[in-house]
Amino acid sequence: MTATKFTPPPNFIRNIIAEDVEAKKNNGRVHTRFPPEPNGYLHIGHAKSICLNFSLAAEFGGLCNVRFDDTNPTKEDVEYVESIKSDVRWIGFDWGDRLFYTSDYFDQLYEYAVQLIKDGKAYVCSLSADQIREYRGTLTKPGKDSPYRPRSVEENLDLFERMRAGEFEDGAHVLRAKIDMTSPNLNMRDPTIYRIRKVDHHRTGSKWCIYPMYDFSHCLSDSIEGITHSICTLEFEDNRPLYDWILDQLNVDCHPQQIEFARLNLSYTVLSKRKLVQLVEQGDVSGWDDPRMPTISGMRRRGYTPESIRNFCERIGVAKRDSIVDMALLEYCVREDLNKRAPRVMGVLRPLRVVIDNYPEDQVEELDAINNPEDPSMGTRKVPFSQVLYIEREDFREDPPKKFFRLAPGREVRLRYAYYITCVGVVKDEQTGEVAELHCTYDPETRGGWSKDGRKVRGTLHWVSAAHSLEAEVRLYDRLFEIANPDGEKDGADFKTYLNPNSLQVVTSCAIEPSLSHAEPGSVYQFERLGYFCVDSVDSSDKTLMFNRTVTLRDSWAKIEKKEQKQK
RNA sequence: UGGGGUGUCGUCAAGUGGUAAGACACAGGAUUUUGGUUCCUGCAUUCGGAGGUUCGAAUCCUCCCACCCCAGCCA
What we know:
Layout: H1 12-22, E1 31-34, H2 44-59, E2 63-68, H3 78-91, E3 99-101, H4 106-118, E4 122-125, H5 129-136, H6 153-165, E5 174-177, E6 192-196, E7 210-212, H7 214-224, E8 229-233, H8 240-250, E9 257-261, H9 273-281, H10 296-302, H11 306-315, H12 327-341, E10 344-345, E11 347-348, E12 351-356, E13 365-370, E14 380-385, E15 388-392, E16 412-415, E17 420-428, E18 435-442, E19 460-461, E20 463-465, E21 470-477, E22 504-512, E23 524-527, E24 531-535, E25 545-552, H13 556-567
Helix pairs in contact: 2-11, 7-8, 11-12
The structure holds one RNA strand of 75 nucleotides.
């Protein structure tokens, strides 16, 4: 393999861990975790976190757990658990035997809560949700103590036990940490740590009707698992004092260090679960795995490879400032990977019939084509050539603009791996005036696509023998949103206003070379001169081949044409 | 107007007192049977702003400005 070695840039988290290891903190041990809530599908932003946690652990000879943060049964579901597991595996990471659930710790967590109550550091509050909000104060005004704050340890213990036993309805009581209602950090104003939810949990069934809140369960779960560095996103920065407070009060042996980094934003898409759910539920896309979605399953179906995603995550870096990474970098990463591994193939998206007037009507030749010029070990294949061919409609111009060096009346071009042909006639549809067919002559001396006399041709076109071609449907994808930052719009505008109405274009009756007749679902090809395409793993069948365009090739002609048009 | 963060090229991002890495994008050029790939070349006299300390500041100090997050019994 000629894999280009890319040295990841240093980042502040790696630096912190390196120093900790150097200082023999945690006896030099490094243990991270990826803690998704099973309430949605993983997206490229999660991939950043997954890659960060797993590779940091790997780099320092440590381990990384996967832990489902399943403390809110009203929002979570096994469907998500399964998809998350397969996505993490697909991206390329192995959690070994360390797949955990916060719900594994419910008993222990309950005991910790009881301990807090016994120590007078937590109390049962019987205020309503609205009242709790009122008592909390505001950003600029301190809160005030709940009237239930002074309840005795005995009463709290009794009430909490009865909460667990199901004696009260949802919302009747909550368990709160007793910290400081005047703290400028709202998280410290006696945060709720347990609430009543009389619903079944996807793993614990009906065993519990009280469930711990994130702030209480997360730090303790980390501690229970012996996590050394608990990496999370920026919005949890204000929760860190609470994370530390709980671990300090309970005097646990393992007190992980929480470190926050900026979540990923990608241009021309959205990465908030709420918005992605909305797109799925309102039918703007076909599902979580719609190839336009920035979800792992969508990208997989689109033809992205795990390597390209991992590479992307490495290149974007890790820092604390809000940023929007250019989609062009992601596209660069897939092209880089696919260029090395995708077999080349010829496919015509919008066929234009070409008749080679001087080619024997019944003759068929099998011409040699290289499967991947980047990798000779991938060998060659035979491609049939005959009198009637298809070429790409946009490769012919009756009135060619400057710098257009493809086919035009009287002009000679090369058919890749075949012959030089010269356009000698144009047949038009009488009704529409549209070019219906081209007549060309070929030079038998140019077999294979080159000429002994050294004559140069400017253009090389891809083509397919009409009689041998396979029909296929191709989906061309474009950015999901028309503006770079649909997420950044202030509440006034609905992000969906910016959806790109042309993000999906279905092209039927495409003509592709016969070697693709048994293409496997999910396999990726480069259609020469067009882009990378993969066989759709959901809709493609033996009857109808369906391809998704992963990404176009870089297209300098398109750039030139755009520029020329601007100058007019 | 409380608290917590962040400001280095169009976009990411190194840099931690010694004189602005790298990547993507962009612009030129070379090679090319993919207008692909590959290969060269160019691309921040300047680090949100203003002062100050210092022989020397993106790095230290002061003030200011901008942006992000927090008032779920969500995570």
